[in-house]
Amino acid sequence: FASTQEFDVVVIGGGPGGYVSAIKNAQLNMKTACIEKRGALGGTCLNVGCIPSKSLLNNSHLYHQVKHEASTRGIDITGDIKVNVDNLQDAKQKSVKALTGGVEMLLKKNGVTYFKGEGSFVDEHNLNVKPIDGSEEFQVKGKNIIVATGSEPTPFPGIEIDEERIVSSTGVLDLKEVPKRLSIIGGGIIGLEMASVWSRLGSEVTVIEFQNAIGAGMDGEVAKQTQKLLAKQGLKFKLGTKVTKGVREGDVVKIEVEDVKSGKKEDLESDILLVAIGRRPYTKGLNLEKAGLEVDNKGRLVIDDQFRTKHSHIRVIGDVTFGPMLAHKAEEEGIAAAEYIKNGHGHVNYGNIPSVMYTHPEVAWVGSNEEQLKEQGIKYKVGKFPFIANSRAKTNLDTDGFVKFLADAETQRVLGVHIIGPNAGEMIAEAGLALEYGASTEDIARTCHAHPTLSEAFKEAALSTFDKPINF
Ligand code: FAD
C-alpha cells in the first residue's frame, strides 16, 4: 500500500465554496487538497447553475431585442430571425467549459492537489477517495477538513423528475427545443430566470406559486412591480396556488392545481414542467456518521460562528450549511474558513450579502427590506428614483424600474437598497460598499457620479431620502 497522503487542509467539494477555500488555504501556505466527484470544478454554480443560466439569459435577451426592438432602434433586418437552440446550447457549454477549465488551472497554479473522486469520512481525520475513473480507492488524512458539498434541487413530493418532460433546474438548462408550453412550480429566482429565458424564445410560460407574491425575499413593493413587468412581457402567474399533481402522459404533463384560499381546482397541461421549489443541502455518500457529524431537520450540517462542527478541525461552508444558498456567500465563507484555520480569525458580514435576479430588467437588493424594518420597529425613510427620469436609461430605451433606498430616519444611515432596472446586479455593489462602510444617504448623494450613467439614479434615490431629487 502507498502510505496515506497527509494535508494541512482537505476540502470536500470543488464548487464556489470549496475551490475558493482550497486556493485561499494554499495561498496561506497550507498543504491543501480538494476532492471533487463531478469530473469538473466549479460545482453547481459553474456547471448547472449561475453560469449556464446567465448564458441563456444573456443570449435569449439579445434574441428578443433583435426580434422585437431592432426596428425601433434603427436597425432594419430583412429575412427571418430564428432561434437555433443547438447553437444557443453550444455557446452556453463553451462558457461553462472555459470557466471550469480555468478553475482547474487556478488550483494547479496555487499548488492545490486535485483529486477527481468521491470523498467520504473514514473517521474524524481520514477520508476515503473513490476515483471517478474507477481506479483503486485510497485514503487521505487532513489535519483540517472543510466540507463544501453544496446542495441539490428539492424534490416535489409525488412528482417524479425524468429530466425530459418533468425537469429540475438542471434539465431546464438543457432543453433541446423551445417548448410550446412551459409550466413552472415556484416563483423564486431560479423559476423566474428560466421563465424569462424560454418565454423570450417563444414558450407560453405559466408560473405557479403557493405564496401570494413572487421572488421570495424581495421587498414587497419590488416584488409587486417585478411581477407587473414580467406579466407585461407575457408570463402568466398563478399565485396563491397549490400544485396537487403532476404526471407525464406521453409527451405532455398533466398538472392539477388548487387555489389555496377557495380550494377551487383546475387542470392544466404543459409540454414541460419545471420543478423549482428550492434547494436542499447535499451530504449523500459522505458517511457523516463515521465522523460523528449530524445534520439538522433541514439536512444542514450544524456549525458554530467559526464554521466548526463539534470537531473543531472539521468546518462546513456554502449551501450545505446555514444561510442563503448563493455562490458569493459560499466564497466568502471559504475565504473566512481558511483564515480561521491559519490565523484564528475570519469574517463574513451576513447583513451585507446581495441578491440578484438576472431577468430583464434585473432585480437586485442588499440589506433590509421594508417588511423587515417594520417588524423590527426601526424608523426609516424611503428614497426612490425611477429610471424613466434617468438620462442613460432613456437614451437606451430601457426605462423600466427604480432605485429604492431605505435609510435610518434619524441618522440617514443606509439600511437597505432595492433596485429593479437595467444593470441592477452591477449597481448593487455600490450599495454593498455603502452598507459595509456605514455610509449615510447624504454621503452617496454628495459623491460625484459620472454622467450619463444609470448610477445617477442611485445617487438621486439616495438624495430623495432627505431632500428633493434634481431630475424628477
Ligand atoms: P456547490 O456549488 O453545489 O458545489 C458542491 C460540489 O461538491 C459539487 O460539485 C459536488 O459534485 C461536490 N460533492 C458533493 N459531495 C461530494 C463528495 N462526497 N465528494 C466529492 N465531491 C462532492 N448563485 C448565485 O450566487 N448567483 C446566481 O446567479 C445563481 N444562479 C443559480 C442558478 C441555478 C439554476 C442554480 C441551480 C443555482 C444558482 N445559484 C446562484 C446558486 C449557486 O449555484 C450555489 O449557491 C453555489 O453553487 C453553492 O456553492 P457550494 O460550493 O456551496 O456548492
UniProtKB/TrEMBL annotation:
Keywords tagged on the record: Disulfide bond, FAD, Flavoprotein, NAD, Nucleotide-binding, Oxidoreductase, Redox-active center
Pfam families: Pyr_redox_2, Pyr_redox_dim
Alphabetical list of PANTHER family matching this protein: DIHYDROLIPOYL DEHYDROGENASE, MITOCHONDRIAL, DISULFIDE OXIDOREDUCTASE
Similarity comment: family membership: Belongs to the class-I pyridine nucleotide-disulfide oxidoreductase family.
Record protein name field: Dihydrolipoyl dehydrogenase
Keyword field contains Oxidoreductase: yes
Active site annotation, chain numbering: 451
Cofactor note: Binds 1 FAD per subunit.
Residues bound to NAD(+): 186-193, 209, 278
Residue ranges of domain Pyridine nucleotide-disulphide oxidoreductase dimerisation in the record: 353-462
Domain of life: Eukaryota
GO molecular function ontology, one term from the record: flavin adenine dinucleotide binding
Catalyses which reaction(s): N(6)-[(R)-dihydrolipoyl]-L-lysyl-[protein] + NAD(+) = N(6)-[(R)-lipoyl]-L-lysyl-[protein] + NADH + H(+)
Gene designation: Piso0_002865
InterPro entries membership: Class-I_Pyr_Nuc-Dis_Oxidored (IPR050151), FAD/NAD-bd_sf (IPR036188), FAD/NAD-binding_dom (IPR023753), FAD/NAD-linked_Rdtase_dimer_sf (IPR016156), Lipoamide_DH (IPR006258), Pyr_nuc-diS_OxRdtase (IPR001100), Pyr_nucl-diS_OxRdtase_dimer (IPR004099), Pyr_OxRdtase_I_AS (IPR012999)
The organism of origin for this protein: Pichia sorbitophila (strain ATCC MYA-4447 / BCRC 22081 / CBS 7064 / NBRC 10061 / NRRL Y-12695)
EC number: 1.8.1.4
